[in-house]
Amino acid sequence: MPQNTTKIKKCLFPAAGYGTRFLPATKAIPKEMLPILTKPLLQYGVEEALGAGVGNMAIVTGRGKRAIEDHFDISYELEHQIKGTSKEHYLTEIRSVITKCTFSYTRQIEMKGLGHAILCGEPIIGYEPFAVILADDLCDNDGGDSVLSQMVKLYEKYQCSIVAVEEIPAEDSNKYGVIAGNEEESGIFRVTDMVEKPEPKDAPSNLAIIGRYILTPDIFDIIRETKPGKGGEIQITDALLAQAKKGKVIAYKFKGKRFDCGSVDGFVEATNYFYNKSKA
Questions:
Q1: C-alpha closest to that of 214 among 54, 99, 67, 21
Q2: pTM more than 0.90
Q3: β-bridge mates for residue 167, sequence order
Q4: Structural domain boundaries, residue 102
Q5: Most distant CA pair in the chain, distance
């Protein structure tokens, strides 16, 4: 098989989930298309990838997600209606994204967990290292390098899988994958253990994985061999643990702020943050 290439060229977006915490809004609207101000969550993620030098977007969708494909496409009728008017500038950002990126789509037929969703993306990723962004996790570094940009630079040095982590309150450990590791540099840990949604008393640390990953392509074969966990889901944490046991996973305590937009509280917090930022 070909060797890993240093440059990360593709970003995978698992976007097949139901978004049940936002019902009834997500009955007909993909949760990834819910807007923070005037921009859908998924567009923030795509722009983050693009800013990190990644131009190929691989999106794993599901039933009822056609709005995602339509958003990252030309709308000739709309463009014709507002051409030459004061409203034309509203489409400038998305036009730029469409021009600079390529988009590929595949479907996750059954919801079998994040690990399975990533495996569904194998045909459009191929055998090369790639990034993963979960649009639910909206990150901002206030003018500095984005979280993914930071991780891409780190990959160039370490050439192994990388997970972004942040400190969480101990009582929240059962909502996240939690890592244990040895700190090699400030904020950079060589992972020795990973536990999916442990109870606080069983958590190996207070460092939780958030929705930013860089994965080496051997992860696909590992996921295929990974047995389903709670609820019959295949967890990416379990697959990464197999790499970690060989010393091939780095956890990175990123610079920036992260909003859990998969929750109503986090969504409102992000909306207020970006609104205040737009007025500053």
A1: 54
A2: yes
A3: 207
A4: 10-279
A5: 61
